[in-house]
Design a protein that fits this description.
This protein is of the alpha/beta class. Helix content is 37%, strand content 19%. The protein has an 8-stranded parallel beta barrel, surrounded by 9 helices. Helix 7 crosses helix 8. Residues 126, 128, 130, 138, 173, 209, 212-213, 226, 282-283 line the site of ligand PBG. Homooctamer.
Amino acid sequence: MASPIIAPFPATRLRRLRRTENLRAMVSEVNLTAANLIWPVFVTEVAGAEGEIASMPGVERVTLDGVQRAAERAARLGIPAICVFPHSDQGLRTEACERAWDPENIGNRAIRAIKQAVPDLAVMTDIALDPYNANGHDGIVKDGQILNDETVEALVKMALVQAESGADILGPSDMMDGRIMALRMALEADGHKDVAILSYAAKFASAFYGPFRDAVGASGRLVGDKKTYQINPANRGEALRCVARDLAEGADMVMVKPGQPYLDICRAVKDEFGAPTFAYQVSGEYAMLEGAIRNGWLSRDAMFESLLSFRRAGCDGILSYFAPAVAEMLA
Ligand code: PBG
């Protein structure tokens, strides 16, 4: 029997460049900095509702003062943007959702408070009716159906007031058809031509939004599920068609949501379209990681590794509840 040929040394020693911290840093293919992060912040108008969210340990609902402090912290840490999520008074949520376009709603007051405290910080908003809807849906509900075109009309009103309040980036997260073009046209016509749209284009009907719905007080209200408007988690092709459509309708940037279970979508979106691409590491992803870290089951490094995975998958940035903690550790 012929003896196997043993080479005198391995042809390629990949370990050479893993030997020291500096060598590893030199050949790191992607990196993570504070500039890659957008910080989602929950703002409440309800007395007594501020404080930690039970299903999101370490994340708090804050008041208007709190959101100004968060803005100052973001600026200090080099985080370029905050995304405002309103927690509104339950008694003021209605079927018609008219508070969504009230200039005095908590979301719009938060935009103005941030701009007053830190004018340069980019403020992003969420456009969807759920924080103001009696039934917890992102759209207007009639006879058990989510009405598409009526919802788009409401979203346009909501968006114009957010733009008027000083928002830099609008984030439609509602998944109605045709909303990007409607928003773009209304913004142009209303003198807000420089307000950008980051479309939640590839937004899946996900179980990972659970803790968020607790945070904004929508969990107990939601009637049914969001499967008639959010994408089936099985569908990559449909997600890419949503992104193509939203870019064609005038979106400046696009988002994949949730993040880590959908890294294949992030990669495909970046490769196919080359547009600024973001991922939302959503509340359930945060809860899993932070819960395990707090229990001592994972080390804090898991937080960095999860965020780096988005950069490797082609994302320019990540919306993450870890943003301030990570930026602090990077500083
Ligand atoms: C609502 C909205 C949701 C999230 C962001 N905007 C929830 C939903 O669609 O039910 C989820 C974010 C998270 O889970 O962190 N339009």
